[in-house]
Design brief:
By secondary structure, this protein is mainly β. The protein contains four helices and eight strands. A hairpin with an 8-residue loop joins strand 5 and strand 6. It is globular, with a radius of gyration of 16 Å. One of its GO terms (biological process) is vegetative to reproductive phase transition of meristem. It comes from Prunus avium.
Length: 174
């Protein structure tokens, strides 16, 4: 009997970006027009140009969460020497709400892959130390999710999802 492989492991999110974890909070990421992010699916750059709606589950509205969107394949999957590139960071998101209720530490930067297929990863962390305790990084390049999590006392993610995107040629836009 074959064993199901976790899509985050298959996509090398677990291993390259974060350590193995058990998702305990529901997170739904939706780009307009109604394109929900699903692990390993491809989205066109024209669809992901504006920030998505990110709904956070959980059972406690008093809990605070940090959302990170990162590209571990920057600037190219074959040579990701600026790994990771931080595209978006929102902190202090109350549980059972969405990212618009949080504090945007790093504005949403639209993904623009130039070479190869890039993975874009959304990670959700529960803020163990409460609100206004997470400090954003000074720059987007060479971001490290593990180091950031340790420095801010976040621990392992409570939810994650990723999608793939590549440069959109004129023929693919039709």
């Amino acid at each position: 009997m074959s064993r199901m492989v976790d899509p985050l492991t298959l996509g090398r999110v677990i291993g390259e970006v974060v350590d193995s974890f058990t998702p305990i909070v529901k997170m739904k990421v939706v780009y307009n027009p109604n394109r929900q992010v699903a692990n390993g699916h491809e989205l066109m750059p024209s669809v992901i140009s504006a920030k998505p709606r990110v709904e956070i589950g959980g059972e406690d509205m008093r809990a605070a969460y940090t959302l990170i969107m990162t590209d571990p394949d920057f600037p190219s999957p074959s040579d990701p020497y600026l790994r990771e590139h931080l595209h978006w960071m929102v902190t202090d998101i109350p549980g059972t709400t969405d990212a618009s209720f949080g504090r945007e530490n790093m504005e949403y930067e639209s993904p623009r892959p130039v070479v190869g297929i890039h993975r874009y990863v959304f990670l959700l962390f529960k803020q163990m130390r409460g609100r206004e305790t997470v400090r954003g990084p000074a720059c987007r390049d060479n971001f490290n999710t593990r180091t950031f999590s340790q420095e801010n006392g976040l621990g392992l993610p409570v939810a994650a999802v990723y999608f793939n995107a590549q440069r959109e040629t004129a023929a693919r836009r039709r």
